[in-house]
Amino acid sequence: MGSNPKYDWDRLNHLQLGRYAEYYAKMEFTLYGFDVYTSEVDDRGIDFVIRRDVDRYYDVQVKSARRLNYIFIRKDVFALRDSLLAAVVLFQRYELPQLYLIPSIAWQQPDALLVSRDYEGKKSKPEWGFNLSQRNLPLLERFAFDRIVQTL
User: Fold this and answer.
1) Can you give the pTM of this predicted structure?
2) pLDDT at 132
3) What is the pLDDT of residue 59?
4) CA–CA distances in Å: residue 89 to residues 67, 100, 120, 122, 126
5) What number does CATH give the domain 5-149?
6) Alpha-carbon dihedral of residues 90, 149, 135, 112, nearest 10 degrees?
7) CB of 11 within 8 A of CB of 98?
8) Based on C-alpha coordinates, what's the Rg of the chain?
9) Quick one: which of 82, 89, 79 has its CA closest to 127?
């Protein structure tokens, strides 16, 4: 695809990158015919709601990562259920963002990519994690946005 200086994600701060990821995910859902509803306050771990049919809604939490690293969602705001999705936007320098869609129930069977950490007896709150690494990229491919969005 080549390097495009327009996509130098390093010039965005953390908040700008997160906002871009959220808008990017919303636009991709819109392309697939979903209605997108933004919540005014993100206090419950939900960035927006999507709807395709009158009675089929999904809550979406967006996470962004600059390069491959570990990202997580606290369990207390991301209780596994059929109608909850995690949209992960990967930003590799000078490339278009890559979008993945993980149904929350995928964490019911953790693997090298999707991890469950409870930190019993420690300060950190329990979390669902994405162990993003070069080695785990093949595991991430099963969650390619274009593939998963068509199953909703």
Assistant:
1) 0.92
2) 94
3) 94
4) 10, 6, 29, 29, 22
5) 3.40.1350.10
6) 110
7) no
8) 15
9) 79
